[in-house]
Design a protein that fits this description.
Elements: H1 7-20, E1 24-28, E2 32-38, E3 44-51, H2 59-62, E4 93-96, E5 106-117, E6 120-129, E7 135-143, E8 148-156, E9 163-168, E10 171-175, E11 180-186, E12 194-199, E13 203-208, E14 222-227, E15 237-244, E16 249-255, E17 261-267, E18 274-276, E19 281-283, E20 286-292, H3 295-311, E21 322-324, H4 326-329, H5 335-348, E22 352-355, H6 386-396, E23 400-405, E24 409-410, H7 415-419, E25 439-440, H8 446-462, E26 466-471, H9 483-488, H10 495-513, E27 519-521, E28 539-541, H11 548-558, E29 567-572, H12 580-587, E30 591-595, H13 603-625, E31 627-632, E32 639-645, E33 651-658, E34 682-688, E35 699-705, H14 706-711, E36 724-732
Parallel strand pairs: 21-22, 21-30, 22-23, 23-26, 26-27, 27-28, 28-29, 29-30
Antiparallel strand pairs: 1-2, 2-3, 4-9, 5-6, 6-7, 7-8, 8-19, 8-20, 9-18, 10-17, 11-12, 11-14, 13-16, 14-15, 15-20, 16-17, 24-25, 31-32, 32-33, 33-36, 34-35, 34-36
The protein binds (2R,3S,4R,5S)-2-(hydroxymethyl)piperidine-3,4,5-triol.
Length: about 725
C-alpha cells in the first residue's frame, strides 16, 4: 500500500537547510555524545545519544534526518519536558506558577561550556518560560575518559510570588532505538539487589520509592538499560545509572509513539511538592550514568574508575580490614568481653576492631533494639571506663578502634524522645508506627542537624584515637510530619527533600572536621546506597546477609555500579553450612572484615583465616585500584568467576565458586577465559587461601601466556569438594 507523504516528511524536506544551521548543543565524552537542538519554537530537543561523531560539525545535520521535528503532533524529545502546554507525555517539570497557572513553556536562552579540570567539563543551558520569568538551568557534567555523564537541573523562581514545584526531575533523556531491556533491582532486608530484566513495552514503567530515610530498602536508585537485546559482559549497548540521592527517587521509562524511550529520572515528588519563594532556586539531585557499546563489563569499569577518581570518598585511598562484634555478641557484652575480643582481632591480623550497637544509654540501656537509641553516652555498666579506655586497650594490642552509631534515629524509650519530642518525625495527633522500634529525627530542622553532627563530634573529641565509624540507619519514615516546618510556616511537603539536604549538611560538616576517618555507610545492610551518600562515605555495608552463596549474587550485581573498594564484606557465621573457606573467599572480594568469635575457631580455622588476611593484604591493591571482570555469571552457570587485574597488567586475582550442585555440575569441565591481561606477558598461576594441608593443582609451577589465558582460559578446578578457589596470576620476567 502506498501512503501519501506525511506532513512531517514534507516538513523534513523543507526544513533541511534550516536544520543544517540549527543551534545545536553538543555534550561529548571521549567516546559518546548527546546532541541537543533548538527548534523553530525555541524548544530544546534531544536529537542524538550515541557514539561521538568524528566531525563535530556533523551534529548540526542530525536534526534534519528526523521526521518528527517541526510538528507538535510527533514531538516527544524535549530535553526537559514541561507540563501544561503542548506536552502530552510524562513531564520532567511541573510548576504551579505564582498566579496558580499550571502551564510552563521552556525556551532556549543560551548555553555555555566550561572546563572544570582536565577531563571534566560542565555545560549549562539556560531555558526560560515565555510567559513567566521562571528559569531552568540544565547542567551536564561530563567526565570524558570514563564516559560518565552527570545531569541535574536548577529551577529559579523569577516571579513576584511563590511558585510550587510539583515535579522536578534531574534528567529527561531521549533514547532512540528499536528495543530496550531494563534490568531493575528489588529486595528487602538481607535480600538486597535481586535483578529482574524485561523488555520495555509501550507505555510507562515506573521504579520508585516512598520510604524517606532507609529509602532503598525495597529497591536501589540504580538500573541497567540495554539496547537492541540484552547485552553480555563483552558486547552490547549498556547504560548504567544511579540517582545520587539518599531519599525517595522515581525513574520513569516511557516508550513513546515512535517506540523511542523517554527516560525521566529524579527525586520522587510524591508528597514532596516544593515551594519556592520569589528569587529562590531549587537544585535537583544529580543523575549519573555511563554508556558503553562494548558490553556490561566495559560500562561498569567506566563507572568504577569514575567512582574511585571523582565520587567515592577517598576512592583512591587505602582501607582497613576489621573485626566486628555484632554477630559475635549482639547486645550482650561488657568491657571485659570486648577487651578479650581485641585479642581476636590482633590474632587474625586485621587492622581494626569495630564495636557495634549496644554500647550506650543509661536510663534506658541499649540492651536490645527496643530502647536507648538517641542517648549517646557510654552505658556505665557495660563500659565503666568509657570508650577512651577501649581505644587505648585496643591500641595496646596493635589494633585500631572504631564505633557504630545511628544518629538519625530515636527509640521512643529514650531520654532524647522524652526531652525533644519536637525533634521526632511523627504526626502529633496520630498513633505512632515504628520500624525496628524506632522513629526518625527531623533533619530538616537545623537544631537537629547540630545535634546529629554533635553526636559524631563529641565521640571524637572526647575519645581521641577513634579510627573508624559505622553509620547505620534502620528505619523508614512513617507519619511524615515535621514540627519544625510547621513552626516555620513551610509546607510539610518539604520534609522528604529537606531531610536529605539536612543529612548532607551534617555529613559535609563531619567531613570538614574529620577528613581522614573512614566511615561505613550502613542501612541495616544496603538499605541506602547511592552516589549522593558515597561522596561522604568510604564504603558501604552490602547486606546483613553474609551467607556466601547469596553474597556471590549480591556482590555480582552491586559490582555493576560500585567498585570493590566500596563494598564491605565480612566473614560471619550467618550460614554455618558453608565452609569457612567459601565464606572467607567471598568476603575477600570486597573490603574484608570478620564478624566471628575468633577464640572459637579451631587451630586450623584460625591458621586459615590468618593466612587469608595476609593474602588479602598482598593483593588488596589489585581489588581496590584495578579493573574488575565478571567472567562467569552465577545466573547462567553452576559456577561464578570474578577477576581483578592491576593497572600494570602484572598481577591478577581470580575468584571462582560453585553456586549449584544440580546434575553434572559438581566438577567444572570447561576452562574460564581470563580478561584484561597482557597477551605478550607470561603469568604464573598459584592458588591462594588454601585450607591447611589441602592439595592444589596450582602449585605455582605452571606458567601460561596472557594470550593463552585469555583465549583458552584456565580451569580453576572447582568441584563439589573445592567449592571456592582463589587463584593468583602473576607476570614472570
Ligand atoms: C543493622 C546493621 O546492618 C547490622 O550490621 C548491625 O550494625 C545492626 N544494625 C545493629 O543494630
Amino acid at each position: 500500500m502506498t501512503r501519501a507523504p506525511r506532513l512531517s516528511v514534507l516538513l523534513l524536506v523543507l526544513c533541511l537547510p534550516i536544520c543544517l544551521t540549527a543551534q545545536v548543543v553538543t555534550i561529548a565524552s571521549d567516546d559518546y555524545a548527546i546532541a541537543l537542538q533548538v527548534d523553530a519554537l525555541k524548544r530544546l530537543e534531544t536529537v542524538y545519544f550515541g557514539p561521538r561523531l568524528a566531525d563535530p560539525a556533523d551534529y548540526a545535520a542530525i536534526g534534519g534526518q528526523l521526521g518528527y521535528r517541526g510538528t507538535n503532533e510527533d514531538f516527544f524529545n524535549h530535553a526537559y519536558t514541561p507540563a501544561g502546554t503542548w506536552n502530552v507525555a510524562e513531564p520532567a517539570l511541573e510548576i504551579a506558577h505564582a498566579d496558580g497557572n499550571p502551564s510552563t513553556e521552556l525556551s532556549y536562552v543560551s548555553h555555555q561550556t566550561q572546563t572544570l579540570e582536565e577531563g571534566v567539563s560542565l555545560t549549562t543551558i539556560e531555558l526560560m518560560d515565555s510567559l513567566y520569568q521562571t528559569r531552568v538551568r540544565l547542567h551536564y557534567k561530563v567526565y570524558s575518559a570514563p564516559n560518565v555523564f552527570e545531569q541535574w537541573a536548577t529551577i529559579r523562581n523569577g516571579e513576584s510570588g511563590p511558585i510550587m514545584l510539583k515535579k522536578y526531575a534531574s534528567a529527561n533523556l531521549y533514547l532512540r532505538n528499536e528495543r530496550f531491556f531494563l534490568t531493575q533491582y528489588h529486595g528487602s532486608w538481607a535480600e538486597e539487589m535481586q535483578p529482574e530484566t524485561h523488555e520495555l513495552t509501550a507505555g510507562t514503567k515506573v521504579l520508585d520509592t516512598k520510604l524517606g530515610t532507609r529509602s532503598h530498602l525495597y529497591g536501589p536508585p540504580t538500573f541497567r538499560l540495554e539496547f537492541d537485546q540484552p547485552a553480555t559482559e563483552e558486547t552490547g549497548k549498556v547504560l548504567l545509572a544511579n540517582l545520587a540521592w539518599s531519599g525517595n527517587f522515581r525513574f520513569e521509562f516511557e516508550r513513546d509513539r515512535h517506540e523511542n524511550l523517554r527516560l525521566i529520572a529524579g527525586a520522587n515528588a510524591f508528597a514532596a511538592e516544593y515551594q519556592l519563594q520569589a528569587g529562590e532556586s531549587f537544585e535537583t539531585p544529580h543523575f549519573i550514568y555511563t554508556y558503553s557499546e562494548q558490553g556490561r563489563g566495559a560500562a561498569s569499569r567506566q563507572l568504577h574508575r569514575w567512582a574511585r577518581q571523582y565520587r567515592l570518598y577517598d576512592g583512591e585511598g587505602e582501607r582497613l580490614t576489621l573485626l566486628n562484634n555484632w554477630e559475635a555478641t549482639y547486645f550482650d557484652f561488657d568491657e571485659e568481653k570486648l577487651v578479650e575480643l581485641f585479642d581476636g582481632a590482633a590474632e587474625l591480623g586485621v587492622d581494626l576492631f569495630l564495636l557495634d550497637d549496644g554500647w550506650f544509654a543509661n536510663k534506658y540501656p541499649r540492651n536490645s533494639d527496643g530502647a536507648g537509641l538517641g542517648d549517646w553516652t557510654e552505658n556505665r555498666e557495660k563500659l565503666p571506663h568509657g570508650l577512651g579506655y577501649l581505644v587505648k586497650e585496643a591500641n595496646k594490642k596493635g589494633v585500631q578502634f572504631g564505633i557504630w552509631i545511628e544518629p538519625e534515629m530515636v527509640n521512643p524509650k529514650s531520654e532524647l524522645y522524652e526531652n525533644h519530642l519536637d525533634w521526632v518525625i511523627r504526626q502529633p495527633d496520630r498513633r505512632e508506627f515504628y520500624y525496628r522500634n524506632q522513629l526518625v529525627l527531623d533533619l530538616s530542622n537545623p537544631e537537629v542537624q547540630d545535634y546529629v553532627y554533635g553526636v559524631f563530634d563529641r565521640i571524637f573529641t572526647e575519645n581521641p584515637g577513634i579510627a573508624y565509624v559505622k553509620w547505620d540507619c534502620n528505619a523508614v519514615i512513617y507519619n511524615a510530619f515535621s514540627d519544625y516546618l510547621d513552626r516555620e510556616g513551610r509546607p510539610q511537603t518539604h520534609l522528604y527533600t529537606d531531610y536529605v539536604r539536612g543529612l548532607y549538611r551534617v555529613l559535609e560538616r563531619v567531613r570538614e572536621k574529620y577528613p581522614e576517618v573512614p566511615i561505613m555507610l550502613c542501612s541495616g545492610g544496603g538499605g541506602r546506597v547511592d552516589y549522593g551518600a558515597l561522596q561522604y562515605f568510604t564504603e558501604f555495608w552490602v547486606s546483613d546477609n553474609t551467607a556466601p552463596l547469596d553474597r556471590v549474587y549480591m556482590q555480582w550485581d552491586y559490582s555493576y555500579f560500585y567498585p570493590a573498594i566500596a563494598m564491605c564484606a565480612h566473614v560471619t557465621n550467618w550460614d554455618r553450612t558453608a565452609s569457612l573457606k567459601y565464606r572467607t573467599d567471598v568476603a575477600s572480594m570486597g573490603k574484608l572484615g570478620f564478624d566471628i568469635e575468633v577464640d572459637e575457631l579451631s587451630e586450623a580455622d584460625l591458621a586459615f583465616c590468618q593466612q587469608a588476611v595476609r593474602n588479602y593484604k598482598s593483593y588488596s591493591d589489585i581489588l581496590w585500584k584495578g579493573e574488575m571482570y565478571r567472567l562467569q555469571s552465577p545466573y547462567e552457570h553452576p559456577y561464578a568467576s570474578f577477576q581483578f587485574v592491576d593497572p600494570a597488567q602484572a598481577r591478577s586475582v581470580m575468584f571462582s565458586y560453585l553456586v549449584s550442585r544440580r546434575f553434572e555440575t559438581s566438577y567444572a569441565v570447561e576452562p574460564v577465559r581470563l580478561q584484561g591481561l597482557d597477551p605478550a606477558k607470561r603469568y604464573r598461576v598459584t592458588e591462594l587461601n588454601l585450607y591447611p594441608d589441602a592439595h592444589t593443582p596450582f602449585d605455582g609451577s605452571a606458567v601460561y601466556s596472557g594470550d593463552f589465558l585469555m583465549k583458552v582460559g584456565i580451569n580453576p578446578a572447582v568441584t563439589a569438594w573445592r567449592q571456592s578457589v582463589v587463584l593468583q596470576i602473576e607476570a614472570v620476567e
